[in-house]
Amino acid sequence: MTTLTAIQWTDHSFNPWWGCARVSPACRSCYADSLAQRWGHDAIWRRKGPRRMMSDGTWRNPVKWNREAEQTGRPALVFCASMADVFEIHPVAEVNAQLDAARARLWALIGQTPWLTWQLLTKRPENVADLVPWGATWPENVWMGTSVEDQRRADERIPILAQVP
Predict the structure, then answer these.
(1) Is 74 left (phi over 0), alpha (psi -120 to 50) or beta?
(2) How far is the C-alpha of 4 from the C-alpha of 24, rounded, in Å?
(3) Does residue 1 carry a pLDDT above 50?
(4) I need a surface site. Which of 27, 84, 90, 113 has the fewest CB within 10 A?
């Protein structure tokens, strides 16, 4: 299986879009923001900025990874949205509609790729229940986590995450 990321704790990284708004002190040191700025995409890291939607070619990668994982008999880990936060609610209605459409496409993709374990990590666990379509019964191939950069954020975010099925 081809490893497409240097992130040690995952096999692949998949981004439905790039961009996010800062929500806590850890965002000041965000590697994704720095990387996007290096490539000239600094506007996507603003609260009301646009988001950079990924191509259909990018969306085909997880289907390929799923096929490879099935052929080897070894499920693969996919860190979803290393350059975004899937659970961001954008304040600009038009952009938020784009994110809603991409999330709907992501939920369908997760359902089509049972050999991939989707690692969903967010700084916004309070939005998870409202944005996923699964209710109390989640797919077995989804791993949900939250970033906690200090004790205050741990105290805020972990109890919310613990309520997610």
Answers:
(1) beta
(2) 29
(3) no
(4) 27
Q: Residue 115: CA atoms inside 13 Å, Cβ hemisphere, count?
A: 15
> What pLDDT is recorded for position 34?
62
Measured in residues, the chain has a length of 165
Mean local confidence (pLDDT), 57-86:
96
The DSSP code sequence of the chain is -------TT-SEEE-SEEB----SGGGGG-HHHHHHHHTT-GGGGSTT---EEPPHHHHHHHHHHHHHHHHHT--EEEEE-TTB-TT---SSHHHHHHHHHHHHHHHHHHHH-TTEEEEEEES-GGGHHHH-S-TT---TTEEEEE---SHHHHHHHHHHHHT--
Phi, psi of 91 (to 5 degrees): -75, -15
Q: What is the pLDDT of residues 80-129, one digit of tens each?
A: 998 899 999 999 999 999 999 999 999 999 999 999 999 999 999 999 99
Distance of CA 46 to the CA centre of its chain: 17
User: To which residue do tokens 């999330």 refer?
Assistant: 103
